[in-house]
Amino acid sequence: MNKIKILAIVGSLRKDSYNRQLALAAKEIIGDRAVFNLLEYKDIPMMNQDIEFPTPESVKRVREEVKSSDGIWFFTPEYNHFFPGVLKNLIDWLSRPVSDKEPQVLAGKPAAISGISPGMSGTGIAQDHLVTLISFLNMNVMNVPRLTIPNAMQQLDRDGKLALKESYPYLERQANAFLDFIKKQIEK
Ligand code: FNR
Question: What's the distance, Cα to Cα, between the start and end of the chain in Å?
């Protein structure tokens, strides 16, 4: 069997994003059990049907990356009790059919969701909205476990980097569960 491919989509474009750091911690936990890539998508234009065809090269690239992955792991911040607009914009592009003959690339893909915030919410409300959206797009959502990490500042090291002391076992548990979830889907 080929190695499982997980694609991480981080809902923050910020260089030092806690959610990006969380995704990198997940990559480390997954280790050599799967190929784990982070999707880079800051070059995606704002969705505008005037530029939908011919498909922009950046959009072709992200669609290909999603298509060739076995599972998508979202790491999202919470902006005003929602997930950020950049993530909605990306998903809007991904939600459109590739061509007359090829449907959109998200349908049926296993999805996991995690998020971290400096505040108390731990991104739970944003995650609920994301579940609504990706369920509409027929992704196969792993609802348990989801990971919501509040109070990010309490888990930083001296350099201000995410050390994840308390949350590490929960991230490990979710990583293991997601690998099993993907394997079960592949075996079907
Ligand atoms: C925020 N932030 C925030 N935090 C939260 O827990 N609930 C919220 O509703 C919001 N709303 C919000 C709106 C906007 C426009 C911004 C820019 C920020 C704070 C946010 O959680 C914090 O900036 C995180 O550090 C963002 O995630 P990254 O970039 O560190 O991954």
Answer: 14
